[in-house]
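Schema walk-through. Below, the input block comes first and the output block second. Nothing else is stored per chain. Lengths vary across the set, and this one has 343 residues.
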Amino acid sequence: MSAELKLALRQYANDAGFVGFGVCRPDAIPEIAERLKTFVADGRHGQMGWMAERMHWRGAPNALWPEAKSVIMLAEPYTPNHDPLAVLNHADKAAISVYAQNKDYHDIVKKRLKRVGRWLIEQSPEAEIKVFVDTAPVMEKPLAAAAGLGWQGKHTNLLSRDLGNWFFLGAIFTTVELPVDDAGRENCGSCRACLDACPTNAFPTPFQLDARRCISYLTIEHHGPVDVELREKMGNRIYGCDDCLAVCPWNKFAVEARELKYKARLDLKAPDLRQLVQLDDTAFRAMFSGSPIKRIGRDRFVRNVLYAIGNSGLSELKHYAQRLIADPDETVQDAAKWAVQRL
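--- output ---
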């Protein structure tokens, strides 16, 4: 019965919008606890204190919910229909990570997960579920690899022979015991495309990331001024970075995004730095309502925009930075002064 239930569940999940499906046990990644401990001990998590605070759950999914017997991992594509690296060649424009060019994926994926979970409960009334989308202490990528969705590439993101690497992950923990899938096998071979593409050399070795040098971390998670050495390498990337994802050869198999809410807003594909640097808090909140960008706040966002202006080499942008030298936020002041000096 469980095999039949899993087959029907896979079909329902696909009909609901997921393109990847796999099952593993909550204790399928015993090696993760030690790897996470080393990562934090080396300080590579930067200011993400929550990684250290909840390591006991993050490193052992079976401790997060002891009653769970299966972890259902699901993938939803957000593959761009444009070249996400093209904007890097336009110094007066801003580069925003593909996943943030429209609606917040957390809300979209979670609703879909709940829909699949409700179906499972309807088939097994005694079942219990918990759904997770990147906001709980769950190691989605190692679990997805254990569930056969793919493998963690040299850039540490999940890769799939069938999906490329442009997809979100969601997890359903359940008390239902389902047959498990074979774990994914690593297929990076000798390729170094993602490692060589990183502007800040954030990968000390293949398959390892130092978040403190990662532009996604610096633009989203890092509070306060960014080290001067790294500012210069950020270019015009103001929210996230797609370089290592975009150059992966496995993307030739990437699946087209089904969800229209992931399709890039025209005003976020290559927004003008002149417009973004002038946003006050009210305008920022209005522009990014329903967007994941909203959570970093106006000050950190404008800090990133000022770094992009400083890296632009465009003297006509200098007076926009000068206006913010007296900004109420000290980090914005620092970024404005740096940009003016650079120009």
